[in-house]
Structure formats: C-alpha cells, structure tokens
Specification:
alpha+beta; Hypothetical Oxidoreductase Yiak, Chain: A, domain 1; Ribosomal Protein S8, Chain: A, domain 1; seven-stranded mixed beta sheet; 10 helices
C-alpha cells in the first residue's frame, strides 16, 4: 500500500474536489476532515470516501455551492435544511450555531437534514470541547442494521459522539456506532479481500457470516435507498448476548436523528439526519473545577488495577490521539484500490497528481 504524508492527502483531496466544481472552502473543509479521519485510524471514514463523494457529485446528489437554510430558530435551538450540500460543511455550520447559543444561553441544540455523509462525528463534538463546552453529535442515515432478533436492515449505524474538556491533555472523546461496527469498516475489509470478525454482519437469510461481500448489494451506503433490496445486515452493538442494548440506543438515535431532525426513518428516502448539541459547563459548575475533576477521574481510571492480559487502561479518544501522533510521523497508508481510483478520477478531471507527491 502506498504511504502519504497528511499534507499530500489533503492536497489530493483539494485538487479533486476543486476540479469537480467545489468551492475552495468546501474542498478544504471536506479534505481536512477526511484526512483527520485517516490520521486517527478511522480509515473507513477517510480518503476512501473521495471516490464515493465524487460519484455523488457527478450524479447530482451532492449539490455544490448550496447555502444552509435556517427553517426554525429560537434562543437555544435551530432546525437547518442542508439543501444536499457536503455533510461536513453543513455539520460545522450546525455546531458553530450550537456553540454560539451555548455560550450565550447555556445550551445550544441544532438539528439538520437534507445532507449526505457527515463523516467522523467526533470532529464536531470536539469543536465544542475546544471552546470549553461539552459537545454531543448523533446521526442517522441509510438503513443497513437489522434490529435485535431481526434479519432485515431497518436502522442505520446511528453513531453518537461526546467530547468533554479536561484540565490536562486532550478532551475525553467518545465516537462510536451503535452497530457492531461502522459500515465503512466492512467496505474496507472488502477492499482488502479479508474476512470480518464473526458477530459483525449477517447474510440476507439472517445467518452469521464473515464474508464482507454478504453485505452487498450495496456495500457502500447508497445516496438514496431504492426500495427494499434483499441483502445482508450489520448487527447491533453488543452481539448475541447484549445486542438489545445497542439496538435500543440505535432506535433512540433513529428517532432523534431521523424523525426529530426530519430526514426520515426505516426505509424512507433520506441522507443523514443529525442533532448537534453544545452544553455550557459554567451554567452548572465552575469550569476549572469541572475540568480538574474530569482529569482526576481519568487518572483514577488509568491507575486502577489491571485485569489479566491488560497492560494499560485507556479512555475514550486516547487510541485515536496516539494514532494521530504516529501517522503524522510515519505517514498514512492508503489502500491500493483507493489510490487507483483517486488517480483515475484525477485523470478524468485532467488534474495530474504527480506534483502533489514530490
């Protein structure tokens, strides 16, 4: 697999998106976001997505240059129509509004719909934490997860993210799907021609499988679901013993992200429906006291006795931060299949990438 520096991958994304018609701002936001996902080890949400985004642009699903529209607006809430712009662009607008409201009124909650893949949710929650607020983001999307006990994909992977500032180090950053795994990780396994762990997916007949191809068709999320298609499903978080818990969380996010935000649920046509929240800590506790206590909790957790087979206890976000430091030093591996597609797209757009690699 080829290895790239982060800045090289950002430049590749910028060139492709600009050549495809995106504004400099759109291209920069999306490229930076995808590369950050790669840096943090979430390759399923990284530059792997560029060919898919390009296809959505070509087919007119992603509308370039559209403006976010505020449909409803109160002191602490807002409802936005993304008008099918880049998900990352709309999500940043939503969290910026939530942050502004939280600083003034203590809480900001902004929902939006009519947008495609917003990527790695942790980035938006982290925006709030960087402002000494608590950030929350949750999202629904196309149905690809079976309910606990079922075999038909009716729910999305329905991820959620929470970022909490601490006195020392980076924020506590939870970013997780409520399915056993994000759909993109199955796509990545398919590209690498490797099996997935048992407990991730079932085939169209509801049988456990390790073959990522059993999730097809379609493996990648379709921009608009085209009716009910016989295909495999991802399983809810928790597996055969505790999957009802992941299913319960997923159902709640489906209601909030899908029905409350207005994107739809079950097999309705929709993109991502998203709720972002920012919470002003100082409306509840003195900020420094809160952050110190969070840091003390982290220290207590990490210093607690280790179970057999464990050398260290990590907290949410720590693996990603470490991976980011490692990849900034050593570079980012990109799948050969992805690199081939990127070069093909660049060639179609008459945008050579050779100078980017020097």
């Amino acid at each position: 697999m080829p290895v790239f520096k982060a800045e090289q991958l950002k430049e590749i994304g910028l060139k492709i998106f600009r050549a495809a018609g995106a504004s400099s701002k759109e291209a920069e936001i999306v490229s930076n976001h995808l590369v950050k996902a790669n840096l943090r080890g979430h390759d399923s949400h990284g530059v792997l997505r560029i060919p898919w985004y390009y296809e959505l642009i070509q087919k007119g699903y992603i509308k370039l240059g559209t403006e976010v529209e505020i449909l409803k607006d109160t002191a602490i809430t807002a409802l936005l129509d993304g008008n099918w712009g880049f998900g990352q662009v709309v999500a940043r607008v939503a969290m910026d509004i939530a942050i502004e409201r939280a600083k003034t009124y203590g809480l900001g909650m902004v929902a939006f719909f009519n947008t495609y893949h917003i990527g790695m949710l942790g980035e938006y929650s982290e925006m709030a934490a960087e402002q000494n607020l608590i950030g929350v983001t949750l999202c629904n999307g196309s149905p690809n997860v079976a309910p606990y006990g079922g075999k038909t994909p009716l729910l999305s992977t329905n991820p959620l993210s929470v970022a909490i500032p601490a006195a020392s180090g980076r924020p506590v950053l939870l970013d997780m799907a409520t399915s056993a795994v994000a759909a993109g990780k199955v796509s990545l396994a398919f590209q690498r021609e490797v099996e997935v762990p048992l407990g991730w997916i079932i085939d169209k007949d509801g049988r456990p499988t390790t073959n990522p191809a059993d999730l097809r068709p379609p493996l990648a999320e379709m921009p608009i679901p085209q009716g009910r298609v016989e295909r495999g499903s991802l399983l809810p978080l928790g597996g055969s013993l505790s999957g009802y818990k992941g299913y319960g969380l997923s159902l709640i996010i489906e209601i909030l992200g899908g029905i409350l935000a207005g994107s739809g649920a079950s097999d309705e046509n929709r993109g991502n429906g998203v709720v972002t929240m920012a919470i002003n800590i100082e409306m509840f506790r003195p900020l420094n006291e809160f952050k110190e206590k969070v840091s003390r909790l982290i220290e207590d957790v990490k210093a607690s006795p280790k179970a057999s087979g464990f050398s260290e206890i990590l907290v949410a976000g720590e693996p990603e931060y470490r991976e980011e430091e490692h990849r900034l030093r050593e570079g980012i591996y990109v799948e050969e299949a992805t690199w081939k597609k990127l070069k093909q797209i660049a060639s179609e757009l008459d945008t050579p990438l050779e100078k980017t690699l020097n």
